[in-house]
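quick one before i forget lol
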Amino acid sequence: MAKEVSSPAGAGGKKTRIPGGIAKNLGMAIVSGQLSPGALLEGEIAASERLKVSRTAYREAVRILNAKGLVESRPKAGTRVSQPSSWHLLDPDVLAWVFEENPTHDVVLQIFELRRIVEPRIAALAAERRTPAGLEKMREALERMDRFKLTNVEGRRADQDFHAALIEAAGNLFLTSLSSGIGAAVTATTAYKSRWDRLRRDAVPDHRDVYEAIAASDVFGAHAAMKRLVDLACEEALI
């Protein structure tokens, strides 16, 4: 039988008082390995008393984690941490929790492998199918990136908007459904590089190359420009 594990308290010893905060603390403990796959979370009554929150709040936090694939609850068996293969790793919250601390080299490499596979092809499709409205969204996001820079939260939001507009321009509903995940991957890796002082170059020109190729309907150019952008970002992250 798996050992019952207590859920962690809030950061700095502060008690967590809302479901989202409880879910974040538990989620970070899970993705960091503090709570191992198969570990049994403490019961609802004990957890709510220790955290000084209502049972309803704790129950909702567990539901949040369940929806993200991090835990599995069964009647009379309790709630256990799921295997990593069940985690919804492209969920924006889960990805943010993974990159909150210092992810392993393999984790960083794997997220960039995903970006290398997906994003160049998306850029190529966008070059085929972009509309004036889509180009305007990309251009506006690019301007904000240039104004705020990626070291600033506003600049990183603009970066995410640029990639979201690019995915939308690809005109594929199934790819559009990946928008939040790809956007979260872009944001998480950029914030990670900023936190560890690895933003050594201005990435705006790389994004501008992608935009200009798409605006020119240059399918091969857009693919090559996006591949170069992701490759350079990967090199920077793995310094």
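fyi The chain has two domains: 4-86, 92-237.
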